[in-house]
Design a protein that fits this description.
Elements (H helix, E strand, L loop, with lengths): L15 H15 L2 H17 L3 H9 L1 H9 L4 H6 L1 H11 L4
Helix pairs in contact: 1-6, 2-3, 2-4, 3-4
């Protein structure tokens, strides 16, 4: 994948949306269901970090809402809260890509 930066170089300079897109695309290429599952599990904590505690509690108890949240995990404050998650994944798995 040519748009993934090897060794994590320059990832901090990307927007949260770009990090989301790259991490999800890399996970799809690698067929890394574990990453996608981890992302779904990280969404409630990210919602709480953005001050949306009620939303976080709802997500914990309603798995289907997590699928909806997944489609928006690259947007706005949610994407910003998940930046470290995307950077860590890309840094670990984009090596030599």
């Amino acid at each position: 994948m040519s748009d993934v930066t090897p060794e994590g170089a320059g990832l901090d300079d990307l927007t949260s949306k770009e990090l989301y897109d790259r991490a999800v695309n890399l996970a799809k290429e690698r067929r890394d269901v574990g990453f996608l599952w981890d992302l779904l599990r990280a969404i409630p904590a990210a919602a709480a970090a953005t001050g949306e505690v009620g939303r976080a509690e709802f997500d914990l108890f309603h798995g289907l809402s997590l699928l909806e949240e997944f489609t928006h995990a690259g947007e706005g404050e949610m994407a910003d809260a998940l930046r470290p998650f995307y950077i860590e994944y890309l840094s670990e798995h984009a090596k030599g890509t």
